[in-house]
Predict the 3D structure of the following.
Amino acid sequence: MTPLESIVEDLKTLGPERLELAASFIQKLKPSIEPERRAALARTFGCLSAEEADELERVIAEGCEQVDEQGW
């Protein structure tokens, strides 16, 4: 039995929750993910001016970093 066949047989014995966990782990092992992430970062890096970045930080600090205890 090949390693792949052995893994498939092991996966067949897992319950749904464990199978989801295994799938998530396998996705993280895929080598294609890292280059895709780096390419996405390279495409967006430097797209904001210094003023836009400052404004974004201010808006986040004012509106997103607050806890509304009456909210859900």
DSSP finds four helices and no strands in the chain. The first helix runs from residue 3 to 12. The helical segments are 3-12, 16-29, 33-44, 50-63. The mean pLDDT is 87.
